[in-house]
Amino acid sequence: MRGFIRGVDAINHRLGRIVMYGIFVLMGILLWSSVSKTFFLPSLWTLEMAQFVMVGYYILGGPYTVQMSSHVRMDLLYGGWSDRRKAWFDLITVCFLIFYLAVLLYGALISTAYSLGYWKNAPISYLFNVVIGAEEVGRLEQSSSAWRPYMWPIKAVMIAGFFLMLLQCLSEFFKDVLRLRGEPV
């Protein structure tokens, strides 16, 4: 358990420290959007690209937020509890979060398979075949905006983010188990 915790925490910590600078990328895109609308012809790509960067910032930064316990929490009751009671409560609630993330990950896999042009019954095996190059990719989904970017890259970011969040939640689950056993984390 400790090896899993160290590995997942290291990956999410490094990625979170990199992704946190994505806010500056977002600010640059929005600044260019304002400048181009004021002085030049408006750029078609700025609004949608800002949305994509924000999705990446939020989804890939989520595991780091969970790791650092920086998410919003109502401490009205929780703050006064003992460490053991907090560990029990966290252990139970993280199970619900793991289930929710598994459903989100499955939906993201289906959506990504669809955006790569697959419309049949087994999208996960299709994605595996695409990765190893065993099957031809169909018509790629594009956004309906004027810019018309392909949708699969942002959906792949969502898959990565949900998977890393799932791993981080499993890490938190194992940390709570160790705390309940009275062992150091």
Give an overview of the whole structure.
- With 185 residues, the chain is an all-alpha fold.
- It has one domain.
- Helices cover 73% and strands 0% of the residues.
- It contains seven helices and no strands.
- The protein starts with a helix and ends with a helix.
- The model has no long low-confidence stretch (mean pLDDT 89).
- It is a multi-pass membrane protein.
- The chain crosses the membrane at residues 15-32, 44-66, 87-109, 150-171.
- This is TRAP transporter small permease protein.
- Residues 26-177 form the Tripartite ATP-independent periplasmic transporters DctQ component domain.
- Keywords: Cell inner membrane, Cell membrane, Membrane, Transmembrane, Transmembrane helix, Transport.
Any chance you could write out the topology, listing elements then pairs?
Elements: H1 2-19, H2 22-39, H3 46-67, H4 75-78, H5 83-115, H6 123-132, H7 152-181
Helix pairs in contact: 1-3, 1-7, 2-3, 3-7, 5-6, 5-7
Keywords:
mainly alpha; 0% strand
Number of helices: 7
**Structural classification:** mainly alpha
Report the portion of residues in β strands. under 5%
| Domains (count) | 1
Biggest sheet record: none
Shape, principal axes of CA atoms: globular
Low-confidence stretches: none
Rg for CA atoms: 20 Å
The counted number of beta strands is 0
- Written as H for each helix and E for each strand, in order along the chain, the element string is HHHHHHH
Arithmetic mean pLDDT? 89
Euclidean distance between termini CA atoms: 10 Å
Summarize the amount of helix as a percent range. Answer: over 70%
Protein name: TRAP transporter small permease protein
Function: Part of the tripartite ATP-independent periplasmic (TRAP) transport system.
Main location: membrane
InterPro entries: DctQ, TRAP_DctQ
